[in-house]
Amino acid sequence: MTPSGLDLKAVGPRIRMMMPHLTPLEAKVVETVFGRCRFDESVPLKEIAGASGVSEAMVVKIAKKLSFSGYREFRTAVYEYSRLPTADMHQELSSDDGPAEIVQKVFRTSIQALEETLAILDIEEFGRAADLLYRARNRDFYGVGGSAQIARDVSHKFLRIGIRASVYDDSHMMLMSASLLGADDIAVGFSHSGNTSAVIDAIQLARGNGARTLVITNYDSSPLAGLADIVLCSTAQGSPLMGENAAARIAQLNILDALFVAVAQRDYQAAERNLDRTMSAVKSRRRDRGA
Q1: Domain spanning 3-87 has what CATH number?
Q2: How does residue 3 score in pLDDT terms, banded at 50, 70 and 90?
Q3: 120-282: CATH superfamily
Q4: Would 238 disulfide with which of 19, 107, 181, 244, CB 3.0-4.6 Å?
Q5: Predicted TM-score of the model (pTM)
Q6: Are 216 and 146 a contacting pair, CB within 8 Å?
Q7: What is the pLDDT of residue 1?
């Protein structure tokens, strides 16, 4: 049994989300379990404790910290998760990989991120996010680095259907924006780690001024997530070369594409009308192939 009927596809992502909250010794135990070639329901508690260099009581404590009732439930959940086709998709990239291996591994990692993000996505919160984005007077998006690019992508999509959103990637501009938001507005923070200071400060200020707050992140218990009215989480398994961000970005873009469609549905006729207008506006800037 998984805790509270948790989808098996969500077992790995939920454990990964908790990793930043584990001590190095606790994390070592989890890594020992996931690093074993054979981990099934026959593996005794004593074996994992010995391999990790900790007491049996410590292993049980870690299982409970990960929201399992004890070692047995943890063992069953991890074993069942490891048997899923998606759990076996992630493979480490190697300096010896050729083009075919690189393409296969990168694509499979992204597919895994999409499948597991779908498993953990809170559909009720997703619906609330769409409602808030549709009704908001102002929609201010905050992100730095790669997260700012995700914010720009969704802002561009919204503009196509007449939904205006502003993107800020400078810490001072974020704070200036947040200081002007109020109860009819929404501030959206983008941060893979949920630890980006500039985004945390802006979301905190916007929230203090009465604005609603939405966060797109990989960690639902991060400092940024703690400030949000709504948290939508992506998940991705990291690798030494690509990290988590590359695959997580694909998952976040899909969450936001779904939000775009959900917002458009709130007034489909207006969205369709504005899409025609914005497409017509840029049509003159395109050249036919024969030109």
Answers
A1: 1.10.10.10
A2: low
A3: Glucose-6-phosphate isomerase like protein; domain 1 (3.40.50.10490)
A4: 244
A5: 0.84
A6: no
A7: 42
